Automatic annotation (TrEMBL):
Pfam families: SBP_bac_1. Gene3D superfamilies: Periplasmic binding protein-like II. Residues 1-26 form the signal peptide. This is ABC transporter substrate-binding protein. It comes from Bacillus haynesii. Coiled coil: none annotated. Keywords: Cell membrane, Lipoprotein, Membrane, Palmitate, Signal. PANTHER family: ARABINOSE-BINDING PROTEIN-RELATED, POLYGALACTURONAN_RHAMNOGALACTURONAN-BINDING PROTEIN YTCQ. It comes from the Bacteria. The keyword Cell cycle does not apply.
Amino acid sequence: MARLKLKGNKWLAAPAVFLLLMGCSANETSNQDGKGKEKDAIHIMAPLLSPESPGENSPSLKALEKYTTKQIKVTWVPNSSYNDKFNIVMASGDLPQAIVVTDKSPGFIKSVKSGAFWELSPYLKDYPNLGKADKKVMKNSSINGEIYGIYRARDLIRASIIIRTDWLENVGMEMPKTIDEFYDVLKAFKEKDPDGNGKDDTYGMVVPKWMGLGNGSPWDIMQTWFGAPNRYGIDEKGELIPDFMTEEYMEALRFFKKLYDEGLINKDFAVMDSAKWNDPVVKGKAGVIVDTGSRASQIQSAMEEADPGNKDVIDVIGTVKGPKGTYTFPTSGYAGMIAIPKASVKTEKELKEVLGFLDKMNDQEAQIIANNGIKERNYKLENGTYTSLEKNNKKLLYEHEGLAQFSMGIPEQRYYVEKQESKLFKHREQILKEGEKIAVFNPAESLVSDVYTQKGAQLDNIILDAKTQFIIGDIDEKGFQDAIQLWYKSGGEDLMKELNKRYKETK
């Protein structure tokens, strides 16, 4: 059994996953008594990354309601459609009292500029947990220095290469140390029958529908291996340039195309639901995922549940060496935030009630309920030793797993985690310690552009579409360069002028 360990790392928070969601109408959870929204109810829009959401009769949800003295009404939206739903809901004006915001998207920035959300800076100091939020992370999550959401804390370094070590052993290889060795592993996992069934039914790495523009997708992580910037780089004149204007980015893009052309990644990556990301590895179809280290633990647990003989078959490394050195992709210290719309929270009194609820969600007891569930139902404690009771019961896990989406982890992680002696756990800890030294940070992280607010979605889609088209072979390098020129003509040139002006001002 693992000994109880309560971490105090302020970068850590609710387990998760790469990424988040939103959407839906507050009408779905209101007017139950015919007199408007229920008294003492909190309506939340949150992402769902699990196959099932916590039902309204979930013991964990009931426990949270009792602890916070609020009825918690959650509208769950699939992660894959969250940003679209967010824009629809903002346009409708029918909003919850708290809404998970996945990132500083153009839709969110537009809403902030129009005054749709409360500016929270003056209020946070009055709350015992929120008042201790990390200042660096708060700045990263701000919009021009103003706070429009409570950040959801995450490790600063999470990027990892997750590999089936049983497959490595079967093909006679070791953990890769360079990009070339990484490629060789993927090729062997496709061509050398790593599962030993005598069939040509495996491939190297599984990638979901998540192209990414500096938000931590597999492509974002891998391009840093080649020395490419994190969203924006600095040219020889000391000015910001987009990552896709660098030769290192194009070198990475050629590598991605090579993986696709040779069948070393899944052909359906452009449409694959991220909720099913783990399945090909767990079911023995693929051997590698590039994502956060926490996903490795999820996969290992799932494989052991399927077959107890699969113990310690998953391991991680942080990165591989590229042509210009060894680099890794960092986070901003947070993964989205929880914002409070003015349309549903109309007065300061109501605002303070919502902030009080969010503050209480960071108490140790609330963090434990959201992340671990109920004692003697989801876990047990014996002589200070924590043991999960969910390892062979997904239904129990789903009772509370989604609740972590509005458990912020401020000022630190306070829920139970199992101290493990496995190589996977130790290697994840090593990645955390060493990653910051080689992390490629985004120099424009805190800058917010009016041009991007107006045209960001259009500009992003130009590059994202071209990136996908290049990888699958619909366009060549000239076609990609044409897309860059379209990006510039569509507002990209004005965007870079504005960002560089603000970058110089901040320097």
